[in-house]
Amino acid sequence: MVAALAYAGPPPLTLARTFTSWRFTPGVAATVAALGGGYGVGLRRRPAAAEAWPRGRTACFAAGVVVIALVGMSFLGVYDDTLFWVRAVQNIVLLMVVPMLLAMGAPLTLLRDVLPPPARTRLSRVMHSRGARVATFPLVVTVVLTLPLLVLYLSPLYEKTLRSALASAVAGLVLVVTGFIYFWTRFRIDPAPRADPYGVTLAITIVEMIGDAVLGVVLWLGPLVAAGYYTAVARDWGPSLHVDQWLGAGALWIGGDVVGLPFIGVVVARMQREDRQRAAVIDAELDERDAARAAAVPPSDDEADADRPRLWWEDDPELSQRFRRQ
Questions:
Q1: Which residue from 54, 169, 243, 317 has the least number of CB within 10 angstroms?
Q2: pLDDT at 2 over 60
Q3: According to the lineage, what is the superkingdom (predicted)?
Q4: At 132, is the pLDDT very low, low, confident or very high (cuts 50, 70, 90)?
Q5: Residue 165 contacts by C-beta under 8 Å, 6 or more apart in sequence?
Q6: Over the stretch 64-100, which tens digit does the pLDDT of each residue have?
Q7: Does a structural domain hold residue 93?
Q8: Is residue 294 part of a domain?
Q9: What is the Cα–Cα distance from 318 to 326, expressed in whole angstroms?
Q10: For residues 79 and 86, what is the distance between their CA atoms, to the nearest angstrom?
């Protein structure tokens, strides 16, 4: 019985091992190569006459790809089946950090630029279809963002991801895709089916933070998740099972809120930028309208008189009548 429960996992996690513990994961490596390589090919194939691609977009997408590699092959990948809190950090990064960086890289715009005209038209038709507009309704995307972690941790699915590499990969993919849908439709750096006010996005952020808090409290106060699996691991170092789960609950709760801060910053910056662009467009339209009106209709004597600077006595009721212009 003792032999059956003997610990056979990675060595105790220390500060040094957070930097030195690595493993090669073929699936993660293939994902990194596909995303990074595809983005690079897209940059090279963009039409020469197209507008210069912002370096910040490339940097954000590259950072997202690097984070995927770190999540799967650094100490987070080595200890994700051993420590509850490590898996929690992994999941919150896959849901919040990776998709946010990828969405800031504007991959859909890059894809549109390199597609031939017929395919580009079909893509635009799908992205602006009624179904896409319904699927990206603010309430829907909020549920899409908050539901995966609730389902993962409050159902037997979590333990299945610990025991099956395939289930773990599928769960990670779902987290990244659902997170990307959220950040894509909220940032609107890429063309999106809807153009909801950014104030709605800020309200959704509050709802998402509440969802993180609910999950954190449930994991903090509730029973052990996947207790049978972690007991069988028989880890003889580090925090106890309860403390390990408390740390994970804190990572899911606080981590989601911390990631929400740069998200809010990006949304506010986008909102201010769109306000400036809208004001510039309105000003240009008004100037054009005034110029066209001035060119089409010469001003009357009354209008010319109204446009000239007024003398002080013209506002006096008696003097204005006595000295008014004939």
A1: 317
A2: no
A3: Bacteria
A4: confident
A5: 27
A6: 999 999 999 999 999 999 999 999 999 999 998 999 9
A7: yes
A8: no
A9: 16
A10: 7
What is the domain range of residue 83?
17-262
Residue 231 in contact with residue 174, Cβ under 8 Å?
A: no
Confidence of residue 139 (pLDDT cuts 50, 70, 90): confident
Is residue 149 situated within a structural domain? yes
| Domain total in the chain | 1
Per-residue CA distances from 172 to 30, 47, 152, 213, 309 (Å): 14, 34, 11, 21, 70
Question: What's the whole-number mean pLDDT along residues 191-206?
Answer: 72
Neighbouring CB atoms inside 10 A of 318's CB total: 8
> Mean of the pLDDT values across residues 194-218?
72
Q: Return the closest-CA partner of residue 70 out of 32, 34, 36, 16.
A: 32
| Dist. CA 277–CA 279, nearest whole Å | 5
| H-helix or E-strand spanning residue 21 | none
Residue with structure tokens 């052990």? 224
pLDDT digits (tens, 9 = 90+) for 208-249: 666 667 888 889 888 999 999 999 999 999 999 999 999 999
Q: Cα(308)–Cα(29) distance, rounded to whole angstroms?
A: 73
d(CA 297, CA 146): 60
In angstroms, the CA 241 to CA 59 distance is 39
Amino acid letter at 9? Answer: G
CB-based burial label for 136 (10 Å; 0-12, 13-18, 19+): buried
For residue 141, give the nearest of 188, 91, 88 by alpha carbon. 188
How far, in Å, CA of 203 to CA of 210, rounded? 11
Taking the C-alpha atoms of residue 29 and residue 21, their distance in angstroms, rounded to an integer, is: 16
Instruction: Please give the backbone phi and psi of residue 197, each rounded to the nearest 5 degrees, phi first.
Output: -60, 145
Q: Which residue has the tokens 């909102």?
A: 271
In a domain, 74, yes or no: yes
